[in-house]
């Protein structure tokens, strides 16, 4: 007996389209939850220019990009570690890979359906991922940002 796997036909698209692989995401709610959790961690840890790009109509490889800027090597490491803690320990997801941690100018955390890019300011401007993917919808994540308080109380 032979294993017969059907080959793609014109009725079975292999390109990224709503009827192809991108149209059949395995866990879209989980992907969104991971992306929003990563963005929240970035805000909570003082990253700047935090954004989440919806990549579902651009590629079948992943659902969201989270992009944020850190102020120093130490800050980028802390962001990376806090995101890992939240996504792995609290949301029970598994990071597939991490790149750039030692160089600490652009750290990429790959969680499969969510890819998190942590940049220093100069590297983010140089590569311009949000410009490169300007046709990807930007999620409104303003509700995740810390609210400005009234300031210190005076006596």
Give an overview of the whole structure.
The protein is α+β, with helices and mostly antiparallel strands and 155 residues long. Helix content is 30%, strand content 19%. It has a single domain (26-141), classed as Beta Polymerase, domain 2 (2-Layer Sandwich), CATH 3.30.460. Strands 1-2-5-4-3 form a 5-stranded mixed sheet. Residues 1-24 have low confidence and may be disordered.
Question: Secondary-structure map with pairings?
Answer:
Blueprint: H1 28-44, E1 48-54, E2 64-70, H2 73-90, E3 97-99, E4 106-110, E5 114-120, H3 121-127, H4 129-132
Helix pairs in contact: 1-2
What ranges have pLDDT less than 50 throughout 5 or more consecutive residues? 1-24
Q: Return Rg in Å.
A: 18 Å
Strand coverage percent: 15-25%
Q: Can you name the CATH architecture?
A: 2-Layer Sandwich
Supply the number of structural domains: 1
CATH class descriptor name: Alpha Beta
Which short descriptors sum up this protein?
disordered N terminus; globular; Beta Polymerase, domain 2; alpha+beta; 155 residues
Quick summary:
With 155 residues, the protein is an alpha+beta fold.
